[in-house]
Design goal:
single chain; three-stranded antiparallel beta sheet; about 5% strand; about 350 residues; mainly alpha; DNA polymerase, domain 1; hpI Integrase, Chain A
Length: about 350
């Protein structure tokens, strides 16, 4: 069963239906009753409206249920919808019965500050989705202002998954020779810049000519990624790449996102490395492109990022180093030129 029990904000035990691909539902009838079984069947069939059993008109719950039907929400990729729905359902669990018009700045600020204390990235994402939710509330006249607009932006602490160094890439390659799934996994992640969710679904059917043609799971974007020579060598070294995916388990099945990340962690450890993950290879290729002087637009054509600000999060360390080197070279050149001119002028003055 996809039913779990949790205490609501009043401490009262509640039953919740949660299943991937289905809307979250909160049961009205007690467990084991005929009413419960009817509601459960409706949940399995997908016939139960989100929050229909408990909506108070004008409440946060009402607002969220209505927001799920908007183009703003539905235009997101399936993965984005699932992520945003998870955050909104968590917010609904705590505050669903409150009137949307009663949610003031200080309430939102307290909620975000509490989450940011231990999970700043999650707090940033929650702020984004709440901002859009209450923008919708203003549009449908459930309130006159957006209380999230007045909250301070939450600064990111740390850089997340770090990029692999070139020394770590070389060490991994030495530990995992060509012809192994471990090696192909690293080369595929490194030379495509894909997220794990895309890498595990790539197949030989995605290859048209000398490039991969894929649609990103997170963004829904269609991207074309030329096959780099090193990646081609790694693919050709495999016994076969014509299975259900380029990367398969020892049972010949495609990896799940989580399963691949866990397996990659074991391969990293086997290479005597630590502190790096599969996602870090996405940053490594971004750093390589930045070092090569590739424009942000060029980097986005490979990684699938939409905004320059997203690329900057991946390459800021490289950009700072490159700019510092260029600036110092200019400064040294200026100093040398001025020093030479000063000595020449001094010499000329002394000759007089």
């Amino acid at each position: 069963m996809w039913v779990s029990e949790f205490p609501d904000r009043h401490g009262k035990p509640r039953l919740r239906f949660r299943r991937k691909g289905h809307p979250t539902y909160y049961f009205k009838s007690p467990f084991g009753t005929e009413g419960f079984r009817t509601e459960y069947r409706q949940c399995l069939d997908g016939n139960t409206p989100v929050g229909a059993d408990r909506i108070i008109p004008g409440s946060i719950s009402d607002l969220i249920a209505r927001y799920y039907r908007t183009q703003d929400f539905l235009n997101g990729a399936p993965a984005t919808q699932m992520k945003n729905r998870g955050m909104l359902e968590g917010f609904r669990n705590e505050h669903g019965e409150q009137p949307a018009a009663a949610m003031m700045f200080e309430h939102v600020d307290h909620i975000l500050a509490k989450k940011a204390k231990d999970h700043p990235a999650a707090a940033r994402n929650l702020r984004k989705v709440l901002r859009r939710l209450f923008e919708f509330a203003v549009k449908v006249r459930l309130r006159s202002d957006n209380p999230v607009e007045h909250t301070a932006r939450i600064k990111a602490t740390g850089t997340g998954h770090r990029a692999w160094t070139e020394q770590e890439v070389a060490a991994y390659q030495k530990a995992h020779p060509l012809g192994t799934t471990a090696r192909l996994a690293m080369e595929l992640m490194l030379w495509t810049g894909n997220r794990v969710s895309d890498a595990v679904k790539m197949t030989s059917a995605d290859i048209i000519g000398d490039a991969f043609h894929i649609q990103q799971k997170k963004t829904g974007k269609a991207v074309v990624i030329p096959i780099a020579p090193d990646l081609r060598v790694a693919m050709d070294a495999m016994p076969s790449i014509d299975g259900p995916a380029l990367l398969v388990t020892s049972f010949g099945k495609p990896f799940s996102d989580k399963g691949f990340s866990m397996r990659m962690a074991k391969w990293v450890k086997a290479a005597g490395l630590s502190g790096i993950s599969s996602h870090g290879l996405r940053k490594t290729i971004s750093n390589r492109m930045a070092l090569a002087g590739v424009s942000n637009q060029g980097i986005k054509s490979i990684t699938g990022h939409s905004a320059d600000s997203e690329v900057a999060l991946y390459t800021r360390g490289v950009d700072q180093k490159r700019l510092a080197n260029e600036t110092m070279s200019q400064l040294v050149g200026w100093a040398v030129a001025n020093l030479e001119n000063g000595l020449a002028n001094k010499g000329a003055g002394g000759a007089e």
